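Quick note —
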Amino acid sequence: MRPASTELPFQIPVLIADHQLAAAIRDLRMYMEDHPSEGAVDAINAIENDYQLMLSYARQGYQDPSREILYKHLQQRLLRLCLSLQVRHWIEKLPFFRNADMGTGVTKLLSPIRMKEQLESFVSEMAMLSLETDEVRHEKSREVHRLHQDFLTCLFNRLVVDRPWSETDQQFYEELFLSPTLDRLDVLLMVSAVTLSAVQTFDLPKFITLLHVYQRSTDPYVRQRALVGWVFALQSDDHLTDEPENMVQEACRDAQVVQDVIDLQKQLIFCVQTKQDNEEIQKDIIPSLMKNNNFTISRDGIITEKEDDIMESILNPDAEDQRMEEVEKGIRKMMEMQKAGSDIYFGGFSHMKRFPFFYKAANWFCPFYPDHPAIAKVTEKLGPSGFMTNLVQYGPFCDSDKYSFALAMSSIVDRIPDNLKEMMGNAEALGPVMEEQQRQDEAYIRRMYLQDLYRFYTLNESAVGLVNPFKRERYVVVGNEDFFETDVARRYPELCLFFIKNHCDDAFEQLQRRSMPYLNMSQRLAYAEWFLESGKQTNQAVQLLEEMMKEDPDNEQVNRYMARAYYASMDYVRACTTYENLYKRYPEKPSYALNYAITLSKNERFEEAVQILYQLDFEHPSQHVTRGLAWALMGQRKLEQAEREYNKLLASSPATIDYLNAGYCQWFKGDIPKAISLFRTFLKQHRDVGDKIDLRDEMENDCSMLRIYGISNTDKGIMCDLVME
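Predicted structure written out below.
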């Protein structure tokens, strides 16, 4: 069993799970001496007294048929006390929890029944307002929303710092979140609060609540928030009991649950790549859009349209069309990224999270609605334009960004001309319109919520120190051991190929070992290719391909990858043998002949290599063939002929490596100035593209060729120093 937690109170939950109650009680008392907490001493005294009574009966040899049940109950009580102290630790240590604890307000001592009544009364009040006149309804509505939002903010804070739940608590909140008498927005906000709490400190009843709400709710918005909640919370589970694993296995008997978890994992990849995508947009797309637009921005921020350049229209009549094509290309690229799942708006809105609105944690998760007290004034000022309604219905942004948009509008709304306000009432003013069917799609709903969460953990300064589900050690959620015995694990190969496709090497590395039992032939080949391309796990590629060779020794594709893997691992003998087999079986394919000849040279069988390469040069001439032939000729000590081949390469689009090899040829011939010049060109071309290169390392790689010409370590050192002069 792995350690329970690196945070306080250390190893105590492990002792509880390992049925070492006496040791757990002793250690918890020691911890409490240094970290006193109100009511904790009375609680542990009661637990210890009950346990001593159980020990007394056991000492007397009394066989209690209820002993197992009572012991488990003691474990639960002690674990709840331990988790309560953990929450108290977070409140003392982390600003986010400290602020939440101070912000519970009227809800701190509110009973569950009174809480439910308060939430239901809001729905009733809003319904009753429909009977009022427009003017009265407007005024009363604003006040009702203000009071209710204040209550929700306090309730959100209470749920974040709430003590560990009992089974009774779990049943109450589950029924509350599924109740048809509550406003959907209230439920969504509460589900997010429970998620934050359970992610920070795993609490089984909170996990069960989120799982059951996901399974039983008919509201797609509630379902998706609950899904994200229980999956994220599972990453904080220290596996002290089997109950979460058993519940996950049971849930994953449903194919839709499996599909939702798989889709969630894929969307998480796009979240963790948000900054990378934003860098691409800022570096490659935005400059092109700015360069090719027809506007200028003055130092005062005044936007003016550029006058047409008469000379350009004469000298380059197609310039305008070319600019438009570049702009459309950039916009099309961004739309393709968004369609694939990228968070293309993060860069712009990341600078708009400093409004006082975001000082309250609840507002990062509050579903967008125009009557929110923080934006009610801008909603009113925009009047009947329909802008706020369109923002809700059609805006392609997550809720957090919608609030940023509306708050930014509030600072300029008084200066917007009426005709522009009217234009803003057009849905297209917000950019690409989201169709109704797409907005109701659960994958879209989940993606928008994940973007809200990502912004909270990434941009909110008070979130520093919180357990972050988007960190490297957590975002591969399907790698949690609770999924190992489910159909989610059978989908690991699919996910790993998705990671490869989206260049998420880190996620692939975390999951690939667990996916091995489920791989088919084509998937194993894809893995082998990744191992080889990454250059990190060549030995794994060899091992995987050797297993495949045993299963299907005549498979051409497997043999091709096998030869490549041997070559990459510098096992040139076996690489040569494998390429020879391919060359003889498929004589019509020149690539096998070329690779066979190259591996012959690697094994210093230059004469055989030259024969094959001369034939290839006649039948299928190419730079690759010329490069291989020049090297083999050099190995035969035929420097004049090798020089002619290198001159051909250098005269026509040479590769960088050609300057190095041609430098060797001149060095071996004794033309030191030419060799130095070629070596310098080789190094310069590498450095021009940012590659770190050392000529000594290159010489070490080619030591077998240098040995043929008697080049000593002293010779190498002198040449390197001459090149660096």
